[in-house]
Amino acid sequence: MFAGPAALGLFHLVQPSALGRPIEAAASGHAVQPAVAIGVAYVTIAACGALVGGLFAAVTKYLKRFFPILVWAELFFVSLTLLVVALLIGRHDGLHGLAPAILGASAVYAAFVSLALAIRLGGR
Question: What pTM, to 2 d.p., does this model score?
Fold first, then answer.
């Protein structure tokens, strides 16, 4: 649940205008304050992050050590993000400048998701 907002927070910190413009457009389109739209974005990404993190935890339930799960999470999520960015870069001209921030956010997400092992093993 915390991985998604952490990744979005890093992206928001590194590229504030790239996130600010779509959020302001969504806020004006729904007649709400931009702060409300940002809150909705973070809650939505928390829900999506929890869902993807839960699926990742289910797939990696047999990994019992932190370092292997961290390496696997970083490889999996950063590679997947790189693939998606590579597929979309031809369609969106502004994506070149955003790619480092997107990949950094993916790495942060992977690091937080790998902490699910500690949560999973903490109950034993």
Answer: 0.81
